[in-house]
Design a protein that fits this description.
The chain is an alpha+beta fold. Helices cover about 30% and strands about 30% of the residues. The chain has a 6-stranded mixed beta sheet, with helices on both faces. The radius of gyration is 30 Å and the shape is globular. The relative contact order is 0.13.
């Protein structure tokens, strides 16, 4: 009888002595709130600041300042499809042309549009004009125009370029860019003639 009771009680004793199951894990704390993206005005200001710094470094032919705009692992595709990887390679290839065919060149931004796709990443697209380009034997080249696209990462109050794509524009295409109003749509031309020159039409 005692043996039967002991046999029956043994599973209960085992359960009683077993370590308690750990309590269910508390739900993971939600990730810290992401930094908010700048408001629309600040987004545009940062994009214009980047384009202005790009032009300033170009026009001073200061390729150290130009390289500093690029992330260490940036890449750059120029209008001829040459694809450079890394800040050092981008700098090296621009030094050469700024000592020769671009040594007298002057770059101007015509229109800048900035859109943050995350709070930290922006797409900056801007139209440019380039004057003063020379051939390898020193002869003047017709003025050039095109559109640069940067993917840039926010670093404090400024943007640093991660990747760049440059595109040459035909004269007709560039005229259409110049005629865009602030919403990005082609401006309506009145019967009296083209729209008056304004900041976006300079």
């Amino acid at each position: 009888m005692l043996r039967a009771l002991a046999t029956a009680a043994l599973p209960l004793l085992v359960l009683a002595c077993a370590p308690a199951s750990p309590p269910p894990a508390a739900p993971a704390a939600p990730p810290a709130a992401m930094t908010a993206a700048p408001d629309a005005r600040e987004q545009q200001a940062q994009g214009e600041q980047l384009a202005a710094a790009f032009c300033d470094a170009w026009n001073r032919h200061d390729m150290d300042a130009f390289a500093a705009l690029q992330a260490e692992d940036a890449d750059f595709v120029n209008i001829f499809g040459m694809w450079w990887h890394g800040r050092a390679e981008i700098r090296k290839n621009h030094v050469g042309i700024h000592e020769t065919v671009f040594r007298q060149s002057r770059l101007t931004s015509v229109r800048v549009e900035t859109r943050f796709v995350t709070p930290e990443i922006a797409v900056v697209r801007w139209a440019w004009e380039l004057t003063g380009v020379l051939t390898p034997d020193g002869q003047p080249v017709p003025d050039m125009q095109g559109i640069l696209v940067h993917v840039a990462r926010r670093e404090g109050s400024r943007l640093q370029i991660v990747t760049t794509q440059n595109t040459s524009a035909t004269a007709d295409a560039f005229r259409a860019v110049r005629s865009m109003d602030s919403s990005g749509k082609p401006a309506q031309v009145s019967p009296a003639g083209p729209p008056a020159a304004g900041p976006q039409n300079r």
